[in-house]
Amino acid sequence: MDFDYVITIMMIIGIDIVLGGDNAVVIALATRNLPEAKRNKAIFIGTTFAIIVRVCLTIIAALLMTIPLLYMIGGILLLRIAYQLLVSESQDQATLKASTSLFIAIRTIVFADIIMGLDNVIAIAGASQGHLPLVIIGVLISVPIIIWGSKLILYIMDQYPIIIYIGASILAFTAGRMITHELYFTQFFNHYNYAKIIIPYICILLVITGGYISNRIRVVR
User: Fold this and answer.
1) Residue 14, class by beta-carbon neighbours within 10 Å (0-12 exposed, 13-18 middle, 19+ buried)?
2) Sign of torsion over alpha carbons 83, 85, 89, 95
3) pLDDT category, 91, cuts 50, 70, 90?
4) What is the Cα–Cα distance from 98 to 201, expressed in whole angstroms?
């Protein structure tokens, strides 16, 4: 397998794990009132449907990326997502209703994944650079990790905030790559090849610096 493909798959897995912690919490909350047998069934069926929907949405997004300026717009949106990952307060999801119905629990898991997974879709579509098999491989590997390792992932992120900065860097780098692959600016980047190399790293610097400064200001206040 080409080395670039391996790097892309690793980026997709990293993006999904970093952005998927909240989705894992939703699954735990949605199934907490079910008996254990039904809970495992709801998690399995809900996760299966969520994977199918996620792959379909990402494929659609990846295909849409061939439209001029959408790579640029997607890159800017992803920069915003990376910044919000660093500065957003933890969300209280305790208000999410748990159900004793298997069908309702499954429906909650699928719909929550669609709503909360839009940032993942944008990021993965950009990271895949249109290679749809990589999307499928990355999602198939990362989603089970998120589901079954959710508590460990969230614990590590709480204990080691540096992980969040690493995740934001992955997103920022992906955003930079999306911008440099914008079809509308192909001639520019072909002429100024060095810009294509440094823009992803400039994006990392902007996001990390902006997030760090915002967090420091919030602590002082």
Assistant:
1) buried
2) positive
3) very low
4) 43
> What is the residue whose two structure tokens read 């919000």?
84
Q: What is the dihedral of CA 167, 140, 58, 156, to 10 degrees?
A: -20
Pair 179, 152: CB distance under 8 Å: no
Alpha helices (runs of H) in 65-185, residue ranges in sequence order: 70-87, 102-116, 118-128, 132-148, 150-159, 162-180
The model's pLDDT over 57-90, given as tens digits with 9 standing for 90+, comes to: 777 877 776 777 777 887 888 788 788 878 865 4
Q: Is the pLDDT of residue 147 over 70?
A: no
Long-range Cβ contact pairs of 54-60 (< 8 A, separation 24 or more): 54/113, 54/117, 54/120, 54/121, 54/139, 54/143, 55/135, 55/136, 55/139, 57/114, 57/117, 57/121, 58/120, 58/121, 58/124, 58/125, 58/128, 58/135, 58/139, 59/132, 59/135
Give dist(CA 151, CA 145) in Å, integer: 11
C-alpha span between 149 and 208 (Å, rounded):
26
Question: Do 127 and 78 meet the contact criterion of CB atoms below 8 Å apart?
Answer: no
Q: Is the pTM of this model over 0.85?
A: no
